Amino acid sequence: MKTWSDVAEVQPLASKIIINSMKKGRISHAYLLQGERGTGKQGIARLLAKGLFCDNKQGVEPCHTCNACKRIDSGNHPDVHWIEPDGQSIKIEQIRNLQKEFTYSGLESNQKVYIITGADTLTLNAANRILKFLEEPSKKTTAIMLTENSQSIIPTIRSRCQVIDLQPLNSDHFQSQLVEAGVQEKSAKVLSALTNNFDEAMAWNEDEWFATARKLMVQLIEAFVNQPDDAYLFIHNHWVTNFKERKEQEQGLDLLLLAFKDILYFHIGTEDKLVVFSPGEERLERLGMYFSQEKLVSILHYLLQAKQKLKQNVHPTLVMEQLTLQIQR
Fold first, then answer.
1. Which of 42, 60, 49, 43 is nearest to 109 (CA)?
2. CA pseudo-torsion sign 322, 327, 328, 329
3. Does domain 4-165 bear CATH number 3.30.365.10?
4. Considering only CA atoms, which of 163, 119, 113, 170 is closest in space to residue 142?
5. Which positions make up the signal peptide (predicted)?
6. How many Å apart are CA 103 and CA 286, to the nearest integer?
7. What gap in Å lies between CA 92 and CA 48, rounded to an integer?
8. Per-residue pLDDT of the chain (329 residues; tens, 9 = 90+)
9. Does the 207-328 domain belong in CATH 2.40.70.10?
10. Residues 177, 1: Cα–Cα separation, whole Å
11. What is the 3-state secondary structure (H, E, C) of 275-308?
12. Is the separation of the CB atoms in 49 and 80 below 8 Å?
């Protein structure tokens, strides 16, 4: 999203709130942008920063060509600071370094902006430290916090920010975009259920690893039905060796969630919502006969628990072992 007009097309309410504030010269000292991946959080944050530093604005729209805009795009503007998780979390040392930066005057103006991506990963100590900025805001300081999981933001931070909810993108429209770009319709359904980011979806579609991941997901579910005694072995011989990185492990669980949701949709007669399987597919009927509706609800709960355990840094092999045993019960 390059302009506020682009934002308005996908996030009309959010763009209206921010544009009105900009026109009135009432930019908040702190924003909390919350929404799923691909809903435009970083794009909006970047536009906000450009709006504060651009030398050649046309109304609320930054020019994108001046020195300030170009440096914000490249991440090299001296008065715009991006904070991202160091590993699994944003640590207190990162916030201390940010505070140190803010003791100095702005290099080119008194305006400063800091953008915290993955704000829900702030450790408790880091979150408490950032409160000092929010409790004693400078007129020339703007905080922009981005999160997919707003419930993990401590209430004292939320209460000091202007919270802006970003709505999920229209899945059907996104699927159509992918199909128009050459993605097969079936794959477009799966990709649009996993991400709202076009570039990410296209990269996954061309990634051999992702194709293997989809196959392993189906093979694991069928192993629970056809060879339940071998499911545990399948986890160690195939699943763990393919899903090595944290993002890959989360993606594997997301694929399993989609598949088990499909089986539940089969039970309740809403096959128009199928993503992984197709209506009338023999394999889906067989899986529906094996997994009861009650069991499927439990499995979905176990999968969500497994995702949470990964976020809590439980060893991924242990997470999958526990999940396998839970599904086998």
1. 49
2. positive
3. no
4. 113
5. none
6. 65
7. 26
8. 689 988 998 899 999 999 999 999 899 999 999 998 778 899 999 999 999 999 999 999 999 999 999 999 999 999 999 999 987 789 999 999 988 877 776 666 778 999 999 999 999 999 999 987 788 767 688 999 999 888 889 999 999 999 999 988 777 888 988 999 999 999 999 999 888 778 889 999 999 999 999 999 999 999 999 998 899 999 999 999 999 998 899 999 999 999 999 999 999 999 889 999 999 999 999 999 999 999 999 999 999 999 989 888 899 999 999 999 999 98
9. no
10. 15
11. CCCCCCCHHHHHHHHHCCHHHHHHHHHHHHHHHH
12. yes
Nearest by Cα to 252 from 328, 192, 306: 306
Domain spans in the chain, listed from the N-terminal domain onward: 4-165, 207-328
Instruction: Locate 133 and state its tokens.
Output: 């900025």
Contacts of 32 (CB under 8 A, 6+ apart): 119, 145, 147, 150, 153, 157, 158, 161, 162, 163, 164
Q: Are 78 and 111 in contact (CB under 8 A)?
A: no
Distance (Å, whole) CA 302 – CA 143? 36
Q: How many helices (DSSP H) and strands (DSSP E) are in the chain?
A: 17, 5
φ/ψ (deg, to 5) at 247: -65, -35
